[in-house]
Fold each of these.
Amino acid sequence: MSGIEIRKVTANTGAQVFGVDLAKPLDEETATALRDALNTHKALVFSDVHLDDEGQQAFARHFGELTTAHPTVPAVDGAPNVLPVDSEGGRAANHWHTDVTFVLNPPQASTLRSLTIPPYGGETLIANSAAAYRDLPEPLRRLADDLWAEHTNDYDYAVPEETLDEEQAARRAQFTSIKFRTAHPVVRVHPLTGERGLFIGGFAQRIVGLSTGESRKLLDLLQSYVTRPENLLRHRWSENQLVLFDNRITQHYAVDNYDGLPRRLHRVTVAGDVPVGMEGKESYSIQGDASHYTPVAA
């Protein structure tokens, strides 16, 4: 671990890591230091990274077993654990979300590696949902503690269905080819740190027990605390970078501000546990079997 340096980027979210060569196997001391830094800073940025898909997967495995690329979207050819995040494939995910929360046990962590970067724009925003929870006024916090939300992949997360062209409609049909609905606690307790975070984002479509309209108003109110500027890291990509973030206690947003120029990242995600709420109750599946994507630990 000699020479490793962790340098905060903002007060609440993100740190740069120096002195670690991700192309080499990490010794346990270094791996532990990175896990601890991730728990503290929620997102870690590595620069001057020279990895291929195999190397990215090897690094991610230091944090746990991998998921396959996605429950419904195809992987990179020959790399079933690697998801292409490609502007040309219509995957500018310009909505706030936590990765794959529509399944029972979403990834615990995600890695993004830059391949093709536009000359301007294309930033990734990462929000600290634990800071958001701490920001809640006490009456809102007490309310959120008792709420559960239904997450699903079957909604118009990008554009309304009636405005889709043929290619966009085909992508949406693929994304929803297996329909998932899962109930998660609105306040999730982090299994390692014990922190409480708002576990909502774009796939959270309804509060259990409330109407759609009531749910939308309440979710928008809570979400406004997640996306406060002081809780955000705005990461401007450079070539040969890798960002690791804790998917259990962050949200992220890919800014679509690069005029349709080529932008390609590769994503590898680490399998996670079933979320647990304030009273120790676990999330539960309503519809859809994601065992092909990420098995649930017994």
Note: The mean pLDDT is 94.
Amino acid sequence: MAVDFRDEAPAILKDYLIYKQTIKNMSKKTIDEYFIDLRTFFRFLKVKRGLVPDGTEFDEIKIDDVDLDLIKTVNLELAYDYMNFLYRDRNNKSASRARKCSSLKGFFKYITNNKHLLDTNPVEQLESPKNKKALPKYLTLEQSIELLNAVDGNNKQRDYCILTLFLNCGLRVSEMAGLNYNDIHSDGTMRVVGKGNKERIVYLNSACIDAYNEYMKVRPIDEVKDKKALFISRNHRRMSVKTIQAMVYKYLEKIGLDSQGYSCHKLRHTAATLMYQQGGVDVRVLKEVLGHENLGTTEIYTHLSSEQMKNAADSNPLAKIKPKKKV
């Protein structure tokens, strides 16, 4: 069920979320995630302070009555108790707990430093759970070519163009769905609207330009519901995120990768990894191409491939030294 913080949040939380949405220009999806995270904390807080009738299901606890007096009872000990609750009772993984920790710290920083409602920030010293950084999963160069060669059917020009943009430009699936035909410019650049409605310019290589030109020859015009949309579905509507995902899964299945955890986002990983490992793209340039806020997010792509590590071992000048035979 969709959430709307305007219906459920107490005034003090509404103020914070409106600030994040209007001043910090965060997306609706991000704001909803902030609200859900903080709603969980306020429910926990009410339980710990004995403000919930016996037998009430945790997910049914209302938080619209949370006020500053209740928030002032929060201390660092309770914050760590909350993190333990997330781990033991909610079975949240480290990434989820880290996000909830960040949401909590952001809220208290705002009401302390921006609104001056608290003299000191009670969770300032709260440490975030260590988040094990898994290496991103991606297609090899050979698998990427195989995926492109698998495209066929009535929408082959459209599908080929989408896959080409994924694999060459590293777009998010939401960015792909949001593309308008006039976002592709005659100078070989593409306007992309990313997270938080932040715009960036992506330069298109010849493969992308060729794929785009071939698609535009057959792109539907008549009866199209969204005239500006670049990618049109069989129902003459803008292709949604789910429709694009289904199309990608279809071709991944065709080349035998459907059950191996691959997805649209893995195609983004593929573009980034191929640009860094085989194209020699500087990580700072890669950050701008992908639209990352922080360089640390991009640095996950600087992992070494097994081939690179093997080559490093073979490059050691001692690699070919053999034990001297005894006479």
Note: The mean pLDDT is 87.
Amino acid sequence: MSLIVDTFGRTVEYLRLSVTDRCDFRCVYCMSEDPCFLDREQVLSLEELAWIGQAFTELGVKKIRLTGGEPLVRSDCDQLVSLLGKLPGLQELSMTTNGSRLTKFADKMHQSGLNRLNISLDTLKPERFTELTRKGKLDRVIAGIDAAKAAGFKRIKVNAVILRGQNDDEVLDLIEFCRTRELDIAFIEEMPLGIIDERKQSRHCSSDEVKAIIEQRYPLMLSNKRTGGPARYYTMAGSAIHVGFISPHSNNFCHECNRVRVTVEGRLLLCLGNENSVDLKAIVRQYPGDISRLKQAIITAIKLKPKEHHFGGEDDTQILRFMNTTGG
């Protein structure tokens, strides 16, 4: 039973733990073109990350997802996977990755105890892929997906951010790609983080619009599939895959939020769309080994978790941190 319950009665059982703010891509919806990365001393060590993971699992967290930036640019990430995978009570250890390094690391991660992979893929057109990621190569990501399947990962999900006028013409192509490779897919509305300009505001594409495109070819049936995250899943005839929609704009899911994030510099973010946070790094470094103090800080911090986020309105708070510093 989780001991982390906020003032609105929501139980926190899911931690997204960022291992780096660095990435080998520069995706347009995730970071600026010329990002300024953290210095090494500002970043949590593997041992500190594992210690925070232990505190959360002892408080009842059952699922940890490793995020970035791109987690696999931290080449010793498999050691963290091994440490976290041994934590009693942890039922699932997963990772969100851009897939570019999976040909090198898929086997190692699977053997170290990683259970699931989410792989970002927004387009199947090589030139467009390089444009959206600013420097990525599509063939490396597709090779990484195939390497992950060959390594034995049974639960692989593609994440696609659909942007109006940029890749909304590929929704059905992405569906066919996932049907062929037997991959689940989640379509994600763009998160309005970072510096918002007119170009960003005009490219929003809602989950309902994406769903309507898919149903031109494949009628969707609501599924009872639950992964502990915010996606609502559907199935379609002739395939075992699930199609999910994550809709922070059009279908607010705050009332059932069961997750928090810890950034790589140790900030406990209590809501993606608010700046409420607590500095866990300060506690870990000032009181090394005192897990009781760390757990009490987490329990106290959860009381600051807001009721909901507010995305999209003119009067709403603008979140200036980019997704790579937030933790995907």
Note: The radius of gyration is 19 Å.
